[in-house]
Amino acid sequence: MKLTILGGGGFRVPLVYGALLGDHAEGRVTHVTLHDLDEGRLSAIARVLTDQAEGVPDAPAVTATTDLDEALRGADFVFSAIRVGGLEGRAADERIALAEGVLGQETVGAGGIAYGLRTVPVADRIARRIAELAPDAWVINFTNPAGLVTEAMSRVLGDRVIGICDSPVGLGRRVARVLGANPDEAWIDYVGLNHLGWLRGLRVGGRDLLPRLLADEEALGSFEEGRLFGPEWLRSLGAIPNEYLHYYYFNREAVHAYRTAERTRGAYLRDQQGVFYEEMAKPDTPALAAWHRTLADREATYMAANREAAGMGDRDEEDLESGGYEKVALALMRAIARDERTTLILNVRNGSTLSVLDADAVIEVPCLVDANGPHPVSVAPLPYHAVGLVTAVKAVEREVLAAVESGSRATAVKAFALHPLVDSVAVARRLVEGYTAEHPGLAWLRSRDGRARTDG
Known about the structure:
Layout: E1 2-6, H1 13-21, E2 31-35, H2 39-53, E3 61-65, H3 68-72, E4 77-80, H4 86-99, H5 109-133, E5 138-141, H6 146-157, E6 161-163, H7 167-178, E7 187-193, E8 196-204, E9 207-208, H8 210-214, H9 217-220, H10 224-229, H11 231-237, E10 240-241, H12 246-249, H13 251-260, H14 265-280, H15 287-300, H16 304-309, H17 325-338, E11 342-349, E12 362-370, E13 373-376, H18 384-406, H19 409-418, H20 425-438
Parallel strand pairs: 1-2, 1-4, 2-3, 4-5, 5-6
Antiparallel strand pairs: 7-8, 8-9, 8-10, 11-12, 12-13
């Protein structure tokens, strides 16, 4: 079975390959093709994968190419983890937004919109090449903003594109651990959009254990989300929010922390990974050791500004483990390729799952997965406060898609202006000015006449 990884020179690719190395069952992935536009990054990550495979007799073969069509031909699964504009683009997204006093995070607020505007056209072109060259392949999307990009690709690929994220899985594991439950045996009631969801229950043996956690002040403040949001606010919600909701519930504090930080997250990762790839350009650098060292620092500093705003300090050791998006991807591939039925929280088309959204809207919910793909599970209706956020952000996503399709600058302004974390149409207009001046990939927005895009 062949897996193609788009963004194959990306720093987190060894996580995916490491998960594959532990899979020895029949029908496993036997060949991995890395695709990236940057030959230097491709070479660096290929070296890390070679070190990982040492001593593993049935390790998947690895090839690398900068030719998209070559990478896609014959693929059974396509894993998309591209970053249009690179980390330099992410750093610019943050800087331009913060200059206007609004959030510039890569998936939330102005930064997420800017990232989406330049990523969706590329994701659409990739989806069309997949439909042409590998029509039977399943696409697993990790490219951010994951929900928006998955929805864009689904307009071409239908239900054969599935978005994944490690945030809900990590949240579920932390809550289960505090409750003394096995996360693999728990049913996690989680619903929302990507980076905008709530854990509303954790059931073991048919019994919901979340009320017990909400009633226990000490336990509620003992894990990452409890310290980030505070026990009182979690009890008020009656749920545990995804960590990214800190940007909404404590927006002023988050913006202040980002504006006063020495570097934004994007600038930090740009500099950190720049050092890693420079090291890897030296042929005598121990590839796997350099990668592990960089990864450990990356995980320890995750959402550092938000933790500072909440007065949390450094991350606890038990919170350093991510949700393991590579494990989610492997479980998803196994379920489809081998009909190993499982339940995963995924980004999929809504159908009739959430009545407040239309059938084509991509949402993030538990899904039963089998050889025919994911099937979203029925969930209880959202409370009104969550409906407001979910529908507002979905409306913004739709305006982003409409702006890309039409090439309309006015529609792009509308996308920024309608976001709950952008509080002014005037600010939205200045954001469009700033982003189009900064990003070559947004040159199509420089015209004010709204003519259709012609870049294919």
